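In this section we walk through a basic example: taking a raw amino acid sequence and producing a predicted 3D structure, encoded as discrete structure tokens. The instruction is simple. Fold the sequence below.
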Amino acid sequence: MLELNGIKKSFGKIEVLHGVDLHVEAGEIHALLGENGAGKSTLMKIVSGIFRPSEGVIRVDGKERHFADYDEAIDAGIGIVFQEFSLIPYLTAVENMFLAREISNRFGLLDRKAMHKRARAILRQLDVDLPLDVPVGRLSVAEQQFVEIAKALSLNARILVLDEPTATLTPSEVEHLFKVMRELRGRGVAVVFISHHLEEIFEICDRITVLRDGEFVATCRVADVDHDRLVEMMVGRRIENSFPPKPEPRPDAAMRLEVKELQLRKGGPVSKFELREGEIVGFAGLVGSGRTETALAMLGAHPASRCKMLIDGVETRLSSPADGLARGIGLLPESRKTEGLITSFSIVQNISLNNYRKYRAARFFIDMKKEMLSTQTAMDQVRVKAQGPRARVDTLSGGNQQKVVIARWLNHDMKVLIFDEPTRGIDVGAKAEIYQLMREFSAKGYSIIMISSELPEIVGMSDRVCVFRQGGIVATVEGENINSEEIMKHATTGRVQHVA
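The resulting token sequence is shown next.
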């Protein structure tokens, strides 16, 4: 159905795709894999008419096509759902689905009834029920995802590209999405699926095409490869173990943070936990269990009915993240692009953010030489791959963007680092690098709280695990008890004690 042969793409003098091939058949789910920067998104933008190839041939149904723009790709039956949604948040689902393609009646007026009927029919095919007349900005992420898919199908897409569709979905939402994908496959739709979660590839896909550094590596059937072979194809080397070895517990390590009681809402459960110097404590639990809210409440960034904690043995109440910053606590937020970085700024601007006092040369002047040297030192510590400190953050891969956030807090001389979903949306090679950095930091005495929805990550990285349920910690596990079964047992059935 879709054939790409010898696709090359250059931006100026830099060639980013070096003769890539991709063949996708009707009625299959075809994975497109590779590390960040491998060329997946560029290739898909060529498929959807956003970029034009420098060389190569595109065929749809055996016919050679040259897409001048996105509309021509749509006319050829190609729909794409980008990782960053293209919905207009203050318009309804129906208005988004038919934007610029509104259905009119014989008087030239909008036929809202016809658009609603068509929208409901498409959503019924997806087995999705969502409100059509509220702004999509008020819908859940999963509902917005299905609006994007419905929008593509409303264009009669026969080739559907899904770019990281599961990145922010809960397990049950992912399961529903996979059900929809299987139904589309059964109707003859070709699905190109991009994901960093390899377990999803083995569950849902039929074949895989792997790119590395802008080059075609291989196409193979899912049944013919295993996890290790796939990782080796993606990164060019074997990664024997993503998680660095855990150090022996240090019972004499200084107490860095001691939360005596933290209650998110009156009448809810009260959480208690400790964080020692050089320790990584994992926050585990199902989505909505209160992990992130507890971390934010510690920093004064989320309401709390009560919060009593000690930092380095001194009772402290933080009223804002700025207070946390002053006391040596840094937060790497779940959404690095919207909350952790200003992506249109350079690396040096992002790393220096909130820390310009460090470079003050005189009352109104900044020592830019000192700032640049400090930035380069922080970049070297976390091994940021970029053309230099002045490179814009939005030109970096997801893994390198995460490293810039980490570098900022190192530049602030933090003692406690809170990592919220530290490897979300980054590839397997970059994940291994982030894990290694976290272990290096803990060996240097940094104390880390790691919030993660990925159980292998929690098990592989945590020295102790606080398990959350219904807004509070229901258990703390350590040693040999840090395993998926034990954690899930507490996360799903742990007893929650409500306190007035």
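Looking at the output, two observations stand out. The first strand starts at residue 2 and ends at 11. The radius of gyration is 25 Å. In the next section we compare this with other chains.
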